[in-house]
Design a protein that fits this description.
By secondary structure, the protein is α+β, with helices and mostly antiparallel strands. Among the domains are: about 5-205 and about 300-365, Nucleotidyltransferase, domain 5 (2-Layer Sandwich), CATH 3.30.420; about 380-475, Sandwich (Immunoglobulin-like); about 480-610, Sandwich (Substrate Binding Domain Of DNAk, Chain A, domain 1). Helices cover about 35% and strands about 25% of the residues. The chain contains 20 helices and 39 strands.
Length: about 850
């Protein structure tokens, strides 16, 4: 295959480029633009428009336009096109744009459509769920030969096309929706991606949002008579969408000038205020104001970058070039600020808008498309000539020379000559006297270099070994290894009926691609044909000990209906084969040798469970934020850690989602709040890991104190002895740093609860505690009814009935929901 495609499926804009093995080409849209806005407009007759025309339609038909849907890949967000009644998911919107880009291939000569090889880029910050969803969109768009790669990898391949300098490169990629940072090392065209990472909700769209909130919204509210929360009012919701459109236009203008009014006239907005006055925008805006608004976001990316440099053991002086990628980096003050803060010289030779697509097309050439797993093409090949001679040669190299080594078992019988079919260079006839004869071949052109290898007998006569043709591809750069952007782990049990623990498949920074296997065992008995299942959860994150604070990205489960014959007993070995691709995608299969069952023929990984439900996310975030803050406040007073200050601030930021009106911007704010809460949870978990013994001792002492104050006087002698024995076992777990402490503590708490539950005063106290927090209940109507009934039962002193009501209340609580919303208990055990 000699035709390759790279696609940058962007939040704001998308681009497609081709590579024929020698030259790259960015394909243009019908208006001759190199980038296509990621926008869809469906009119009242269900006619669909894409790109610039769709983007501009937001001014008149904002309810019929979908924008920025890449941000919502991995969620259940549905875009409602009001006039046509069409509904599309974020995946389906992405599919539409990919189809549009695919249509541009008519501009170039291609092979059969099913032979087109395409690499689609994803941000380094994307998790497994978002990658799976992107893959789904690509296949739905008709791409049969498709692979994913992270945007930093594509950026580096594009850099290697234009910047031929050895050393370390730092790629600062700020797109419409995400921020990625990466470090690569180039050594004569051999490239190692040492680090890649990023922030999932940080990009140009966030600039537009803050411009609207801090500049446009106050100006409009001052000039016109509007409801206090006009963005949540259907009569004025168009102002939000049009405001974001105007903000982006002004922001782009400030890339080349010092001031630019945020302007939309009355006809463009076509909306009247409460007094009947036509609304318009004419808001003064300057670079100085924009710099002020986005300063904290840029500082956050700078601090993230500095932290990353520290993690990989590099300083600014070790970086040869700083390369900017992504639309927002076209803003000159940003480039200057980042370059000055990092003290690294900026390189501006790469087009920040198309570099990712170009680099992806170059990377596509390096993939072996004949392999189902999309492995890289081999860097060397071996050719056997007759029975006595074989030679090994480089098939791919970024160097200007390639190596060829002859090996023979019959010394002094043959001579060999290598001739370039492109330049006429020849090695001359070389006697194959030694067991190994080495030749260096000059590569005169970028792309494929052809050589003829000819053999003669030593007496100069024609040899039966004949003539052979070899091809050596001289690349722009060979990507040798890619650093993993996320750690991926399996959540399993440390023993049968034990605690959740992490088994890492790959850790952040590990070189990719990689493949390995591990041995687990069953924690339950699974009968063939039954509807029970064996399962472990898959998570992404760096938290080692509090496994459930890591992000849930799916479940691998084997159901009894998946096999026939023998049952699987407790403790049976499960062999897991896994592979992490260049893109960070996980491929996982399992087998059970004892029953000769191989579960590799079907994909038992389910990522749909990990899709974010935006409809319920607000209440969940508020509930989790409150619980996490309580956990932080309950830490022993002796723990002072600056990470807790940062965690509290992030919890506060996430909690602000409560009360946010259901306007067009709420779902975007939900993603921000969710991201902040995960970061807060990670900070809290790291503090716990650093102070585990202190925390455990405080928990045990606290439980004992509650027992002494509240429960001892109601306990029998046998119960007291039993409780004290359980305390000793928990103390032993602390002293010996055992993993079973949490289970011991849970047993103590349950034992104490069972003693107190019999006391009427405790039931009343528990009921009063439950009704203090209405936000933690899934059914608000049922909660209100149960609360009223409970108050009546307390008044009538019907405590047994109250206990039954408390159980009902507990059934609709979401207070103890973890970050994965109780996705299911694991029952596979670490061996």
């Amino acid at each position: 295959m000699g035709f390759y495609i790279g696609i940058d499926l962007g939040t704001t804009n998308s681009a497609i480029a081709t590579f024929d093995g020698t030259d790259t080409k960015v394909l243009r849209d019908p208006e001759n633009n190199e980038v296509t806005p990621s926008a869809i407009y469906i009119d009242s007759r269900s006619k669909r428009f894409y790109g610039r025309k769709a983007y501009n339609a937001v001014l008149r038909n904002e309810g019929d336009v979908a924008l920025a849907f890449k941000r919502y890949i991995g969620t259940n967000k549905i875009y409602h096109f009001e006039s046509s009644g069409v509904n599309l998911s974020a995946i389906e919107c992405s599919t539409e744009i990919l189809k549009v880009l695919r249509g541009y291939l008519q501009q170039v000569e291609t092979k059969e459509k099913n032979e087109i090889a395409a690499v689609i880029t994803v941000p380094a910050a994307f998790n497994q769920v978002q990658k799976e969803a992107t893959n789904e969109a690509a296949h739905a768009a008709g791409f049969r030969n498709v692979a994913l790669i992270q945007e930093p990898v594509a950026s580096i391949m594009s850099v290697m096309q234009t910047v031929n300098v050895d050393g370390h490169f730092l790629i600062y990629d700020l797109g419409g929706g995400t921020f990625d940072i990466s470090i690569a090392e180039n050594n004569s065209g051999e490239v190692n991606l040492l680090y890649q990472g990023g922030k999932p909700v940080c990009g140009g769209k966030d600039w537009d949002r803050i411009i609207f909130d801090k500049v446009i919204k106050p100006w409009v509210s001052d000039k016109f008579k509007l409801p206090d929360d006009f963005t949540a009012d259907n009569n004025f919701k168009c102002l939000h969408t049009i405001g974001l459109f105007a903000a982006e236009k002004a922001k782009i203008s400030l890339s080349t000038q010092e001031s630019a009014a945020i302007y939309m006239d009355e006809n463009e907005i076509d909306c009247k205020d409460l007094n009947g006055k036509n609304i318009y925008f004419d808001v003064p805006f300057t670079r100085a104001k924009l710099d002020e608004l986005v300063e904290s976001m840029i500082e956050e990316t700078i601090e993230f970058t500095k932290s990353m440099l520290t993690d990989v053991g590099l300083s600014s002086t070790d970086i040869e070039k700083l390369v900017f990628i992504g639309g927002p980096t076209s803003y000159k003050p940003l480039r200057e600020k980042v370059s000055a803060a990092l003290e690294i010289q900026a390189d501006t030779t790469v087009n920040p808008m198309t570099a990712v697509a170009v680099g992806a097309s170059i990377f596509a050439e390096s993939i072996d498309w004949g392999c189902d797993k999309r492995d890289r093409k081999p860097a060397t090949a071996v050719m056997r000539v007759g029975k006595a001679v074989r030679f090994k040669y480089d098939t791919r190299t970024a160097d200007v020379e390639a190596r060829l080594v002859f090996k023979t078992e019959e010394r002094g019988v043959y001579t060999a000559e290598v001739r370039s079919a492109d330049t006429g260079w020849t090695s001359g006839y070389i006697p194959l006297e030694e067991k190994q004869t080495k030749i260096t071949l000059p590569l005169g052109i970028k792309g494929i270099n052809k050589f003829n290898v000819l053999f003669q007998d030593n007496d100069g006569g024609s040899s039966k070994l004949g003539e052979h043709v070899i091809k050596i591809y001289r690349t722009f750069g060979n990507m040798k290894t890619v650093a993993a952007s996320h750690s991926i782990m399996l959540e399993v049990l440390d023993k049968v009926n034990g605690e959740p623990t992490a088994v890492y498949l790959v850790k952040k920074g590990d070189p990719l691609p990689m493949k390995d296997k591990l041995s687990l065992s069953t924690g339950i008995e699974l009968d063939a044909g039954s509807y029970e299942d064996l399962r472990f959860n898959i998570r992404s994150g760096e938290i080692k000990k509090i496994v459930r604070e890591n992000e849930y990205i799916g479940t691998y489960k084997i159901c009894g209906t998946d096999f026939d014959g023998e049952d699987i007993g407790i403790g049976t070995e499960i062999i897991c084969d896994y592979e992490i691709t260049d893109s960070g995608n996980l491929r996982l299969s399992a087998s059970v040798p004892d029953i000769r069952a191989d579960f590799g023929r079907k994909n038992y990984y389910c990522y749909q469970d990990a899709i974010i439900d935006l409809g319920n996310e607000s209440d969940k975030i508020v509930s989790r934020a409150r619980i996490l803050l309580e956990k932080i406040n309950d830490l022993p007073k002796g723990i002072t850690d600056k990470r807790l200050v940062e965690a509290r601030q992030k919890i506060f930021d996430a909690s602000m989602i409560e009360g946010v009106p259901d306007d067009n911007d709420k779902q975007d704010k939900l993603l921000h709040a969710r991201s902040s809460l995960f970061e807060a949870g990670a900070l809290y978990a790291r503090v716990l890991e650093s102070n585990q013994r202190i925390v455990r001792q405080a928990k045990l002492d606290g439980d004992v104190q509650v027992f002494e104050v509240k429960a001892r006087k109601y306990a029998s002698t046998d119960e007291i002895e039993q409780y004290e024995g359980m305390v000793k076992l928990a103390q032993k777990a602390i002293d010996n740093d055992e993993s079973g402490f949490d289970n011991r503590l849970k047993e103590l708490s349950n034992f104490r609860f069972n003693i107190l539950w019999k006391q009427d005063w405790y039931a009343i106290e528990l009921f009063n505690l439950f009704v203090l927090t209405p936000l933690i209940y899934t059914d608000k109507i049922a909660f209100a009814e149960l609360k009223q009934n409970g108050l009546e039962l307390v008044r009538k002193d019907k405590i047994d009935e109250l206990r039954f009501l408390i159980i009902k209340l507990n059934g609709i609580r979401i207070e103890e929901v973890s970050n994965d919303d109780l996705v299911g208990s694991v029952n596979v055990v670490r061996r």
